[in-house]
Specification:
The protein has 287 residues and is α/β, with parallel strands linked by helices. The chain has one domain: TIM Barrel (Alpha-Beta Barrel), CATH 3.20.20. It has 14 helices and ten strands. It has helices at 5-16, 27-32, 39-53, 64-68, 71-87, 102-113, 136-144, 161-164, 179-187, 213-216, 220-223, 242-247, 260-263, 266-286, and strands spanning 19-23, 59-62, 91-98, 123-126, 148-154, 167-169, 176-178, 203-207, 228-230, 254-258. The chain has an eight-stranded parallel beta barrel, surrounded by seven helices. The chain has a two-stranded antiparallel sheet with strand order 6-7. Strand 4, helix 7 and strand 5 (148-154) form a beta-alpha-beta unit. Helix 6 (102-113) runs parallel beside helix 7.
Amino acid sequence: MTESFGARLRTAMDRFGPLCVGIDPHAALLDQWGLAQDADGLRAFGLAVVDAAAGRAAVVKPQVAFFERFGSRGFAALEDVMAAARDAGLIVLADAKRGDIGSTMAGYAAAWLEAGSPLEADAVTISPYLGPDSLRDTLTTAVRADKGVFVLAATSNPEAAPLQTARTIDVAGGDEQTVAARVTRDVTWANRSSAFDGSLGPVGVVIGATVDRSELGLDDELLADTPILAPGFGAQGATAEDLTARFGAVAANVLASESRSILAAGADGIAQAISTRNARYQEVLRD
């Protein structure tokens, strides 16, 4: 039997630490690295990050948008980068933020989670804002394929707060919750399966490292056994100490996502930057 996504993620995080290295080839970073503003530049950038992260980090997270801007050639570069990362033993989380209904969402799931797909990743980010139930088939696909998904719940961008902190009433039970808590409750059902006892489940959520969980009702019980992707570390202001300060009892479930703060070290310095940052996160978790 194939090992579940959550089990693979837990093993990798225990071995390499919680750092998730973003592969975000911003135009300014391509210039800084001396690379061309084209698909070849993207490919060289991505492969250099993969080479630096292999054996030093658990997860890499390509930001799909930066590859999309070069059309089919950009997607070809992304395919090469993700394949190289998976071949290197890294867990690949495609930051695609897809969200739709019916057959369209099934198409996205096939593109990013189906074995043998040119864009096959280990996990993908998805959006619940056409209704969490619209994701049910995608979540089922991920579980059956031993893949993972990370659902946007409480993102780190401040303009999201009015929506994600809004209160919603469950018509059946009458309980009032924030939108972020309702999303989290409705998508993490798969993690409560007995098949995943003692490990992380396959359905994760995105919770910004600069977010106050208490304001959103995202308590430890709700997040038990749930992988958490936490953007906001590094350039966005969250520090390594925020890993435990913000996430407390569920800190061990958190992927601390950093991109610009590490990528700015350049091709010659990125490997050391990854090692240094991961060591600091591991030190915080031990304290």
